[in-house]
Task: inverse folding
């Protein structure tokens, strides 16, 4: 009798410990992830989401593989191009399910973001080093400085994210080349459609909504200190002047036509993911999530640059996971199984 009561008590304790939030833990898809992480596309924010997954679902023993893979499941989240990453994976020879993911941004926006981040804040400006030596933080930034960077910078997203067996021509605007590259990924997320991409990602891994709440990484005002304690120079809110805008368009047309197509095709493939989930209900889910995210960010605002998992990755982690979207935000959380359209 006492043994029976003890068994019932233990079962009750396990149920209480699990709680409603842990329902997602059991559903969580623990596939390995190879994230082809390009620069200035929002990849730090996306990486933070995945770092949060490792912390939340730690009992799955997911490992971060910065240089080599030693066990599964693993997440490769560092800045490795796809070819380098594939060598690391192939050398280990994984047997665990693996999802390959990348994130792409309009090359015009991405290129200007590179200038402000690498050339100014990080002082890594080999493409216009003469101007960088002469410029000091707080001084006006000349159009000549920006144009020198734009005309000399040729690093291509298409070359970075393509597998080893695809010889990329960065001036080739064909859809064929773009499709060859993107068909090697399970998800090519799109920066300009970040929340949509996150929701597709949520469906892939059966995540809770708290898992995908976020503050954008690398989001600072001019004069603030970034995660490496360097002074930030933010992009002007009113955009660039006509000379820089013209130089930017010319640079993209001359060197990044493949990236323009890659970004456009990635958006089309994202639509295909949404159609498979069910567009009508997905759009309702997106509208709901945007409201939930705004509420959670307001609740956790004081942790925008703290409670980070690593550097500025997944800041506000504890707060986001403590927000009860039903009671704190007064909204009804949709059940995951109700998202798919009914036939």
Result:
């Amino acid at each position: 009798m006492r043994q029976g009561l003890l068994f019932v008590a233990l079962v009750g304790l396990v149920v209480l410990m699990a709680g409603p939030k842990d329902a997602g833990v059991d559903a969580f898809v623990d596939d390995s992830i190879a994230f082809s992480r390009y620069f200035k596309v929002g990849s730090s924010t996306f990486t933070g989401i995945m770092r949060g997954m490792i912390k939340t679902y730690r009992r799955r023993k997911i490992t971060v593989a910065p240089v080599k893979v030693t066990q599964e499941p693993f997440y490769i989240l560092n800045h490795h191009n796809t070819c380098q990453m594939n060598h690391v994976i192939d050398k280990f020879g994984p047997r665990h399910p693996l999802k390959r993911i990348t994130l792409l941004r309009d090359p015009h926006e991405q290129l200007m973001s590179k200038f402000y981040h690498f050339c100014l804040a990080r002082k890594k400006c080999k493409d216009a080093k003469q101007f960088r030596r002469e410029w000091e933080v707080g001084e006006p930034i000349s159009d000549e400085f920006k144009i020198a960077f734009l005309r000399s910078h040729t690093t291509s997203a298409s070359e970075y994210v393509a597998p080893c067996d695809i010889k990329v021509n960065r001036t080739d605007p064909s859809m064929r080349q773009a499709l060859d590259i993107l068909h090697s990924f399970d998800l090519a997320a799109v920066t300009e459609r970040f929340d949509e991409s996150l929701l597709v990602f949520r469906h892939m891994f059966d995540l809770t909504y708290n898992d995908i709440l976020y503050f954008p990484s690398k989001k600072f005002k001019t004069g603030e200190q970034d995660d490496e304690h360097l002074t930030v120079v933010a992009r002007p809110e009113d955009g660039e002047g006509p000379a820089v805008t013209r130089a930017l368009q010319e640079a993209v047309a001359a060197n990044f036509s493949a990236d323009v197509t890659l970004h456009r095709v990635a958006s089309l493939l994202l639509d295909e993911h949404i159609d498979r989930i069910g567009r009508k209900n997905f759009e309702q889910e997106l509208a709901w999530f945007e409201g939930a995210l705004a509420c959670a960010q307001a609740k956790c605002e004081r942790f925008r640059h703290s409670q980070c998992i690593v550097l500025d990755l997944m800041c506000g982690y504890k707060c986001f996971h403590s927000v009860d979207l039903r009671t704190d935000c007064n909204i009804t959380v949709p059940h995951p199984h109700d998202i798919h359209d009914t036939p």
